[in-house]
Design brief:
alpha+beta, 3 helices, 3 strands
């Protein structure tokens, strides 16, 4: 008979990695402390299209021209954009001629 699961016990694998909540594991995000913003999170393509108002095809066209931030590849078939980078692009897109 299996032993019962007890939160906080050595069998509780959720507690195996402790993360400093003030640090937010910035190495995992490939960012240094000067780039960190509390709202930084990883966005899916759907969220990027919603925030920018651009279609999927237009986003990829801008990426190929070098006028839109490239996504981070997390795994095979999984890409994400940092929300702060997308917000910066939105704020500067009108002045850069894109």
């Amino acid at each position: 008979m299996a032993s019962p699961f007890i939160p906080g016990s050595p069998a509780d694998i959720r507690n195996t990695k402790q993360i400093d909540p003030n640090r937010q594991d910035m190495e995992d995000l490939n960012m240094d402390a000067t780039e960190y913003r509390p709202d930084n999170r990883l966005l899916r393509l759907r969220e990027v299209t919603e925030r920018t108002g651009l279609s999927r095809a237009t986003i990829y066209r801008h990426i190929s021209k070098g006028t839109f931030p490239r996504p981070r590849k997390l795994s095979s078939g999984t890409i994400r954009w940092h929300s702060g980078i997308i917000e910066d692009w939105i704020n500067t897109a009108g002045t850069s001629g894109t």
